[in-house]
DNA sequence: TTGTGTTTTACGACCTCC
DNA sequence: GGAGGTCGTAAAACACAA
């Protein structure tokens, strides 16, 4: 679309009639463009003498007007009556237009801010998910290590029991049946978590305290 | 050129504050 | 009660792919 001539004319008209709308474009001859949907007649249309020949058309503000409004919005998002009138006079706009522009600008600003907040939350959520995956894989590795250790203990216990029943080591390998089992500094069951799936079945009474366990390797 | 999606301007309904 | 806010939406203006 090319409105350059019209735009110039309308800019001129709006200078002459700053209290109406900045740019009022008459329809081309024979051009009848009924609204897509019914809507209550606007004040602007009424002010423009709207009838069957509908003289009012919504027009974009000029770059200069928008720049000035943006600068003003940058200073303060709210618009007091005095500032509104001043801006309107400076820009040759209807104060109502200035008010509407600020309303819409606030809405855009709010949307942008919400979008930024959403992105921030999404990023941190993604990071948490990645962290969770990493921890799960770490847990799996630790489970495997634990399994290997259990197997090793089992193997040693069997060797000790099978080797000599009266050896000093074998006599020291014992654990009270109802004691909480130890593995290093880690005490199973302390945190209330169900670690049943953490341990693979091993023969009973193979647990020993830390010093006894270490003795096997010294 | 045209269909379609996005942005901008404008408004009505409703709410809050003084 | 009036002024000015938000919210939702209509419709014009605009951008752009096909």
From TrEMBL:
Residues 104-159 form a coiled coil. It is found in: Nucleus. Pfam families: Homeodomain. SMART domains: HOX (SM00389). GO terms for biological process: response to auxin. Residues 59-113 bind DNA. InterPro entries: HD (IPR001356), HDZip_class_I_plant (IPR045224), Homeobox_CS (IPR017970), Homeodomain-like_sf (IPR009057), HTH_motif (IPR000047). Its main location: nucleus. The keyword DNA-binding applies. GO terms for molecular function: DNA binding; DNA-binding transcription factor activity, RNA polymerase II-specific. Residues 57-112 form the Homeobox domain. GO terms for cellular component: nucleus. Keywords: Coiled coil, DNA-binding, Homeobox, Nucleus, Transcription, Transcription regulation. Transcription factor. Belongs to the HD-ZIP homeobox family. Class I subfamily. PANTHER family: HOMEOBOX-LEUCINE ZIPPER PROTEIN, HOMEOBOX-LEUCINE ZIPPER PROTEIN ATHB-40. This is Homeobox-leucine zipper protein. It comes from Eruca vesicaria subsp. sativa.
């Amino acid at each position: 679309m090319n409105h350059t001539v019209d735009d110039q004319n309308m800019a001129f008209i709006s200078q002459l009639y700053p209290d109406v709308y900045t740019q009022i474009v008459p329809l081309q001859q024979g051009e009848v463009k009924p609204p897509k949907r019914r809507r209550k007649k606007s004040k602007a249309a009424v002010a423009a003498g709207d009838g069957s020949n509908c003289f009012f058309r919504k027009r974009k503000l000029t770059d200069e007007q928008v720049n000035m409004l943006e600068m003003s919005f940058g200073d303060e998002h709210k618009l007091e009556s005095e500032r509104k009138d001043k801006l309107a006079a400076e820009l040759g706009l209807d104060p109502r237009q200035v008010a509407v522009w600020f309303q819409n600008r606030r809405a855009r600003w709010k949307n942008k801010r919400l979008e930024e907040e959403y992105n921030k939350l999404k990023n941190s959520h993604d990071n948490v998910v990645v962290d969770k995956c990493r921890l799960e894989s770490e847990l799996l590795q630790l489970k495997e290590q634990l399994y290997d250790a259990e197997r090793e203990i089992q193997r040693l216990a069997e060797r000790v029991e099978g080797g000599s029943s009266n050896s000093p080591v074998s006599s020291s390998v014992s654990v009270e049946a109802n004691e909480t089992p130890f593995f290093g500094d880690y005490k199973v069951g302390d945190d209330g978590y169900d670690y049943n799936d953490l341990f693979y079945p091993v023969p009973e009474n193979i647990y020993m305290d830390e010093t006894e366990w270490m003795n096997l390797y010294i």
